[in-house]
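Researcher: Let's do a round of design. I'm pasting the structure tokens now; please hold your answer until I've finished.
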């Protein structure tokens, strides 16, 4: 659906095993790639590992509620626009409204049929996919496939951790621009993250090493006292 062959990926965050089984079966049959998390923290971890196209999030979860998870998804810049459909119990009108206020794109009341959920998922995915969104970002000989979560350089696969993937994505979206460590932290880790600016250096080093392993020119420029930019080695100085 995204690039012609990729299945849209759905992350289910629901602690009722029987419902997860039922929904997984039906969603896969409807052509979705489905992963499931049993609680909110596991859900956030799975989102960080690989960004799904949509999250189906249960309101009633052990430990942290679905509402809090939805808030955390919205607060992080990387996931701020990730479509979320909330599952709520019957009759909780105030909860539903609160769910939408918290940033869910839609909600569906239990009990519901898998068919109904699939229709809602398709509707939200149609609405949420901006016409301008590119499925692939590229710079020089580096290609990043957003749907497949895959990076290649000069046709060869580059293996990146989730943070390096987000870093590279940020650079590819803003080629040539110099970003300070603080700006990179906000964009890649989110404004609420408690991460030291020096951590950026560590991940830049990893990204650089992964990209340059095949012997290509270094595309990440270190700007003394300013930060980093994705640039051609002989490229002109670009500033914000
Ligand atoms: Ca539940």
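Researcher: That's everything. Go ahead.
Model: Designed sequence:
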């Amino acid at each position: 659906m995204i690039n012609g062959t990729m299945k849209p990926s759905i992350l289910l965050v629901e602690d009722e095993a029987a419902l997860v089984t039922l929904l997984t079966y039906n969603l896969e049959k409807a052509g979705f790639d489905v992963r499931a998390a049993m609680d909110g923290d596991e859900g956030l971890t799975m989102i960080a590992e690989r960004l799904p196209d949509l999250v189906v999030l249960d309101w009633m979860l052990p430990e942290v509620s679905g509402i809090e998870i939805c808030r955390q998804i919205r607060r992080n810049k990387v996931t701020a626009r990730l479509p979320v459909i909330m599952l709520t119990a019957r009759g909780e009108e105030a909860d539903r409204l609160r769910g939408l206020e918290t940033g869910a794109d839609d909600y569906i009341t239990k009990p519901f049929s898998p068919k109904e959920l699939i229709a809602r998922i398709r509707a939200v995915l149609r609405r949420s996919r901006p016409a301008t969104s590119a499925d692939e970002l590229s710079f020089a000989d580096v290609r990043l496939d957003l749907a497949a979560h895959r990076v290649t350089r000069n046709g060869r696969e580059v293996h990146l951790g989730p943070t390096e993937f987000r870093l590279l994505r940020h650079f590819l979206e803003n080629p040539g621009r110099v970003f300070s460590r603080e700006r990179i932290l906000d964009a890649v880790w989110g404004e609420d993250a408690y991460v030291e600016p020096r951590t950026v250096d560590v991940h830049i080093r990893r990204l650089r090493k992964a990209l340059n392993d095949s012997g290509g020119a270094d595309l990440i420029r270190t700007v003394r006292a300013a930060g980093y930019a994705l640039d051609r080695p002989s490229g002109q100085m670009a500033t914000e």
